[in-house]
């Protein structure tokens, strides 16, 4: 099996992440100011985005291709991204994923930057989400 490689994409390579998301039938997309990271194993098998939100980053778009789930790909991708990212990182997730993120050092967050607090309030109108940070 090809080893897993994690890297940040350049702005010119960002369309590769969009192609990955589309291939997974996901509506996720990287925005212009996002930093996009991928896990590669001869092809992109996972991706995530970090969006700048002063004084840190908002983690969005974490997706692992179904054939690579439950193999530690998300953990490996997140561990490297977090090791190379300064400042707090926030994310929103389904409550069922709380334990997964807690193993990576995330804790529940009661105070968010205003832009994230507003977004979370909108998202919670249609789905149960929790806010975590590290």
From TrEMBL:
EC number assigned by the record: 2.3.-.-
UniProt xrefs under Pfam families: Acetyltransf_7 (PF13508)
Leader sequence segment: none
Family annotation (CDD domains): NAT_SF
Keywords for the protein's UniProt record, in alphabetical order: Acyltransferase, Transferase
Ranges of residues in domain N-acetyltransferase: 1-125
GO MF term set: acyltransferase activity
UniProt name for this protein: GNAT family N-acetyltransferase
